[in-house]
């Protein structure tokens, strides 16, 4: 069997085991058995449990990022449709690969700084991608000021909020029966785009420029 095929089988088995049992509880024996190979062969290919887990994080992070980017490649989409397409692709991927999402969203973030840093890199790329979508929305919305006028921190802050909300909703959607990717994306769009649309039209929350009222 070609090396890349055997390695993919081992990685698939590792993602399933790590995702369902957690990093600490998962054993190399179980991973080898699920992959249909010997444990020495797993070590030969991927050296240690830590390196295997790191490889799983990187592979699944790359796959998620690719799914989101591929979701918005259709030319001529309006800004809201591009964001909708990206969110739908995000939720579809996390729903279709629940073990991978568990590895990225739960296991990697709670089992050491090295693993958390790998996921943080993926998140930074997502935030950067969403930031680009927001800037594009500003440029193509005639009534709005350029979002750059708000300052980089404001734009990135909105992108951070959207990514964080999407991450939280993916966990909820995967644990709630019968929630589809389109339903999850629609819920987030209904929440986010109404407010974002006002921002693009130059509207601001008035209380943001005045003292918080006391009760």
Structure classification: mainly alpha
Instruction: For the record, give the distance between the C-alpha atoms at the N and C termini, rounded to a whole number.
Output: 70 Å
How would you describe the oligomerization state of the chains in this entry?
single chain
Helix % is over 70%
Order of helices and strands: HHHHHHHHH
- Rounded radius of gyration (Å): 20 Å
Uncertain segments: 208-215
DSSP summary, beta strand count: 0
Could you characterize what this model shows?
It contains nine helices and no strands. It has helices spanning 3-21, 28-35, 39-46, 49-71, 79-96, 98-110, 113-139, 152-175, 181-200. The N and C termini lie far apart (70 Å). 31% of the residues are buried.
Task: Outline the fold blueprint.
Layout: H1 3-21, H2 28-35, H3 39-46, H4 49-71, H5 79-96, H6 98-110, H7 113-139, H8 152-175, H9 181-200
Keywords:
single chain, 215 residues, mainly alpha, 74% helix
Give the gist of this structure.
By secondary structure, the chain is mainly alpha-helical. Helices cover 74% and strands 0% of the residues. The protein is elongated.
